């Protein structure tokens, strides 16, 4: 921070964020700053001009697009942004942005259908391969999901997420097939994020044969409390807790469901699996099979439903507990392998129900813990 301040610019009121100019700082406080409306002119945007960084390549309503063997580098914001396109292919593309490039995504496929992303390399400042379909009411009104894509044989170095869906997924996403990808040092490996207000349905996502190494955050993350912050807290920071409350389901309630994830190997992460849904809309119908994870922590399942983890191996340094469950029902854990654990499972909440099979949970030093309304009847072993 001291080096940035010495170079010029200014810092936020809480001394946590550096801005290159006053116009850049002011833009962060303007709601929907980039939305153009008929009652505004170019002059109205002048005082936040530095905040309005453009994307490098935008393709809108194009068909039969091929980007092949090209390097894209140093974009002001998103690098590649196909919007409402059909039959688009990225092959042997290299996308590179500095690690500090805020919003420096690699490729954002927004409300597109029929395409491939293959044999590409990403080393960027934000999410690498990202699926979007519009934000909040505007995205729902457009109502065009991103669908029918094959994403395979890609390599991701630095990024906030290797393969990402959201958080602007209000038009939905479906029929995505991801395979044979490698993530090396991405903040999060598989990252699926949304928040209340988005709406939209993300479903029928098929992922297999993923290799990861040196992941600072989670290897696999589903989070419905996205807060537009860096996915990994800076040194000395602590991830903010969320207020858990149930609100009525509306068209603005997002949904994540029907994911199949198999053959994933992660060598080094802060946490292996993190699933956090909403009380009124749990993340549901997630299958994970043949998972091998070496991490500090194992798995955390919060406000989820019908989660099946089968043939999973955990090698963790903090196993208190290895698996944490809160208000999640129809959780099936089958053939879970681990060396030693202080506590295999901690179950909270009266809604919870877990079935463990083919697993020697007696290897753990302590017995399962039940709290916050959960009783011993919440756990069935076979």
UniProtKB/TrEMBL annotation:
Any Pfam family matching the protein: Glyco_hydro_28
Q: Which GO terms describe its molecular function?
A: hydrolase activity
Asked if the Swiss-Prot or TrEMBL record annotates the protein with the keyword Cell cycle, the reply is no
* This protein's name: Glycosyl hydrolase family 28 protein
Natural source organism = Chitinophaga horti
Q: Does the keyword rRNA processing apply?
A: no
What is stated as this protein's family in its record? Answer: Belongs to the glycosyl hydrolase 28 family.
Which keywords fit this entry according to its UniProt record?
Answer: Glycosidase, Hydrolase
Top-rank lineage group of the source organism:
Bacteria
């Amino acid at each position: 921070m001291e080096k940035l301040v010495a170079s010029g610019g200014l810092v936020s009121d809480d001394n946590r964020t550096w801005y290159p100019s006053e116009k850049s700082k002011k833009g962060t406080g303007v709601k929907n700053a980039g939305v153009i409306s008929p009652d505004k002119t170019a002059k109205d945007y002048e005082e936040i001009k530095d905040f309005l960084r453009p994307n490098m390549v935008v393709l809108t309503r194009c068909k039969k697009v091929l980007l092949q063997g090209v390097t894209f580098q140093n974009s002001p914001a998103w690098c590649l942004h196909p919007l409402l396109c059909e039959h688009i292919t990225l092959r042997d593309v290299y996308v590179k942005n500095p690690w500090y490039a805020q919003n420096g995504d690699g490729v954002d496929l927004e409300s597109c259908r029929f395409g491939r992303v293959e044999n590409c390399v990403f080393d960027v400042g934000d999410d690498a391969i990202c699926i979007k379909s519009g934000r909040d009411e505007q995205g729902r009104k457009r109502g065009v999901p991103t669908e029918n894509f094959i994403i395979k044989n890609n390599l991701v170095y630095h990024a906030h997420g290797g393969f990402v869906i959201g958080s602007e997924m209000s038009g939905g996403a479906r029929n995505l097939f991801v395979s044979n990808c490698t993530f090396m040092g991405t903040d999060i490996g598989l990252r699926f994020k949304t928040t209340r207000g988005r709406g939209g349905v993300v479903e029928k996502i098929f992922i297999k044969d993923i290799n990861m190494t040196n992941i600072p955050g989670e290897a696999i993350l589903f989070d419905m409390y996205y807060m537009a912050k860096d996915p990994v807290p800076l040194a000395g920071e602590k991830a903010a807790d969320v207020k858990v409350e149930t609100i009525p389901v509306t068209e603005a309630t997002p949904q994540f469901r029907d994911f199949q994830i198999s053959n994933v190997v992660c060598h080094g992460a802060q946490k292996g699996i993190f699933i956090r849904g909403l009380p009124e809309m749990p993340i549901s119908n997630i299958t994970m099979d043949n998972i091998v994870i070496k991490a500090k922590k194992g798995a955390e399942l919060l406000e989820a439903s019908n989660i099946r983890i089968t043939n999973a191996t955990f090698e963790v340094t903090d196993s208190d507990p290895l698996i944490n469950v809160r208000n999640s029902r129809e959780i099936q854990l089958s053939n879970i392998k681990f060396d030693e654990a202080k506590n295999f499972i901690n179950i909270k909440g009266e809604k919870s129900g877990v079935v463990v099979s083919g697993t020697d949970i007696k290897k753990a030093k302590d017995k399962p813990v039940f709290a916050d309304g959960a009783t011993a009847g919440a756990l069935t072993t076979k």
